[in-house]
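Q: I have two molecules that I believe assemble together. Could you output structure tokens for the complex as a whole instead of separate predictions?
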Amino acid sequence: MNDRFYIQNYCEIRNGEILLNGERVFSAGNESFTDFAKMAYRHLAIAYPKFFKMDKLSKLAFLASSQLLSEESNTALVFANRSSSLDTDVIYQCSIGDKEAWYPSPAVFVYTLPNICLGEISIKYKLYSENSFFVFENFPAAFFPAYAGLLIRTRKADDVLCGWVEILEEDYRAFVYRVGKEGLIEHNEQNLNRLI
Amino acid sequence: MSFIVDYNCFTPLGADLQTTLCRLEEGVSGIQLFEDRELLPVPYYAARFPEPVAVHQGFTRLENMLIRALEPVLERNPVQGRALLLVSTTKGNIREISATGPGEGAFLPVMAGKVARYFGFGETPWVVSNACVSGILAVAVAGRLIDAGIFDTVYVVAGDEVTEFVLSGFAGFQALSSGPCRPYDKNRDGVTLGEAAAAVLVSKDPGLFRIAGDGAVNDANHISGPSRTGEGLYRSICRALEEAGLSATELDFISAHGTATEYNDEMEAIALDRLGLNEVPVNSLKGYFGHTLGASGLLEAVISFESARKGILYPSLGFETPGVSRSIHVVEQPEKKPVRYFMKTASGFGGCNTAVIFEKLH
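A: Yes, here they are, computed for all two components at once.
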């Protein structure tokens, strides 16, 4: 039970920037999140048109994960945030709030669940793997090492992509990282608090 | 090892497990026709609480539902040792949002925190929100946390409401049933929504049932449509069986998801057929409770615990004529059967699936 796991790569998205292992890989100006996401998609040369149909939470999770994942691996996805899908929930609520202009859009409604972003990532990378989405008030620095560790130990996954993907209106922050049996940064609460 | 020590539910059929079960055994469904333009411009079928729920001031209706489900479990099993409250929901207090933004109460950690403080949990609660598998996934998560020695007990509570938000969403998908839902039936035509709360205590100390194995694998196929091959569910069940050290035919019954949409039920039949589970009795309890979203997996597990304890398999209400392409054994009448191993499955938007196998002890 005392075996250790390591953070292998990590990607952060905040304030119009994408950083991979602490190095800036993309920077935009003072754009809205939607424009930023579009520019990042082009810059990173992600040829995946489905991206444009995604809601903001899925775009955020997808962009960060795209820097870390390989196809068809047994990589579990363990993601969390504070606001669940509330950003899209509010957009959907606007479509049904006015009884005179009542139009519930299936294309919006499907994104009113936070785990949809895990589905989007799984489809792109063909991951038939463990998926779970949790909601916490703050970045759960104790939760990720505990839960990712048990998934690897119980052989439910070979490695784990952990992600904090928070978005509400124009406030966004992603910190997504891959955990496995080898690496340099031990996956523990102390190191996460230092990196986040 | 992790064990199921206690459980309860709060449903439109009854304010506690025993009342709910009595009504269910009489063949009563909580589903009714509503004409309620505040929630949906057209008439709809749903399983809603017949009376006002709220009792505790300062708590939302959903928080009261969660409290009502969990309270008896905590009275019988007070918090001690390293105890976690694990809350499962899809939409939480979604009525606390408006076109201008979410109110404070709409944030799931706020809701979970209120319930945790009400019961005096010291630890910050966790929330799992993973579409329609949330309730049963929470049991799997609880078992894993106990197996890993992270907590001694996990109190799992799950709840969701019938709201304008979800009714309109399923209506927009053309996925609402024209009558009470009919899982696996030839004439099924969609989901009937429901609301309920359920609670399960998972512990390191031996109890009524053991969590024998679980799996939760994604379809990697489509965000709103089930896989045509049942891939994620098939793999979830394979993993659960492997972990339990069982062959498929050692299962005595399956409480499946059975939403009564054309594609979900067909997908499940394909997955069960691929596993050679054609003869194992299967039911969907949606005909009694409707689809209670993030509560459904936990509620259906709770009813299945009683089913296993009593050795009675409950019929899949609404099923008359087989309506899936593979042969499966849908329970039509109450069946007496000694039960040792049984499985709860669920599938949901985002391509998620979960299977948990339980062993009845004693």
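A: One point stands out. Chain B touches chain A through 60 residues (CB under 8 Å).
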